Amino acid sequence: MKVIGNGQVSLRNDNPQNVVFKNDSMKPQGLKELGNKFFEQNFYQLATDFFSQALSRDNLDQKLKVALLSNSS
Question: I need a labelling partner for 61 at 20 to 30 A (CA). Which of 7, 8, 12, 41 fits?
Fold first, then answer.
């Protein structure tokens, strides 16, 4: 943690593998979006983990399933 110029406290994590997400209640689309964000930051394993979690959800439509499978590959 550090205090930034305006007196606010900020927290920085340089190792995203140490972050724990509570994904049990997240919808597949939200998991896909998180996966996309991690992919953009070159954290490919985390991105793939989120895509896999989204694929394991029950209420997937066919278009989203195809996008998740494509992103995973």
Answer: 41
